[in-house]
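Sequence only, no structure available. Ideas?
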Amino acid sequence: MNYWKPILLLGALLTATPAFAASWLTDLSAAQAQAARENKTVLINFTGSDWCGWCIKLKQEVLSQPEFEAFADKNLVLVEVDFPKRRPLSPAQQKINAGLASQYRVDGFPTLVFLNAQGNEVRRGGYQPGGVKPFVQSLAKFIGAPAAPPAGMVVTARAKPPEPPPPLFGGAPAAPPQRFTDLVLKNISGTKDRRFALLNNQTLTAGETARVKLEDKEVRVRCLEIRERSIVVAVEGHEGSREIQLRE
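Reply:
I predicted one. Tokens follow.
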């Protein structure tokens, strides 16, 4: 009977292992092609995986957690753009990563950039305290998809293939993109402690900076404060701050 104990223990461990394991790509073009086929959102993680403290915390607290991995399996295509100091990268990969950082104007780590199924940037952010649950809930609400079930319910959730997530912003058409001649505050959502503002084509939280489409160009906008029915922003190239009222 003793011979069976290791086998039974191994079987129990395998049963308890989460059914999801996040797969991180390094080829953005391949990721965008997959996202277009599967109607998913691309998450690009610009990171310094072996030296950046906030990057390491983000991975430990969110990106490596079963709840995030289960959500990502259904809704995201993951891309890692790494700038390690100790782990070697090929010269070709270093050049690709540097080009992506320049393309998406990344000036700090970690930076998370989200692209919709059409390849357009729809959101960006970084490390936020609170762990995996609020991160997944916020992202699920943003892209209109259900949050991942608890780890113990993962297998049950996989029994039925997931339906494609609905379009962003409650069904607003993704193409042709809306043309803006001014900064327009379209929506304020979230909780009192964690609010999101939809400014033209970008969703921002207080403290975030994003490039917002304006006519045929983009302007760099930093969200300074989100109020009850307005936001305060600083626009690159303009002195001072500006309050933008919520459009009825």
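Confidence is low (pLDDT under 50) at residues 6-19, 150-177.
Hope that gets you unstuck.
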